[in-house]
Backbone:
């Protein structure tokens, strides 16, 4: 309904600590069944997240996403979440 493909997970200081994509949820469901829906998001998220800043060029962002084979790239400013490219 809302067409959300990924959620960025942050700590109390808005620093990125992970990302949860549709693929992550599907993998968690495959591994843990319906119980995955009751687990903390940290069990499903990808913790090693590539990031970019507002100073990256579109070409640089495309290269990061293509090389990493992912569709969502958090944008940080001063170490805090500022947005997402998808």
Residues:
């Amino acid at each position: 309904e809302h067409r959300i493909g990924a959620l960025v997970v942050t700590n109390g200081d808005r620093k990125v600590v992970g990302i949860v994509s549709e693929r992550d949820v599907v993998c968690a469901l495959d591994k843990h069944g319906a119980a995955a829906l009751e687990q903390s998001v940290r069990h499903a998220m990808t913790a090693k997240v590539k990031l970019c800043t507002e100073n990256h060029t579109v070409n640089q962002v495309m290269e990061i996403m293509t090389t990493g084979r992912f569709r969502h790239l958090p944008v940080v400013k001063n170490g805090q979440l500022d947005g997402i490219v998808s």
The first strand starts at residue 6 and ends at 10. Strands lie at 6-10, 16-21, 52-53, 73-77, 80-85.
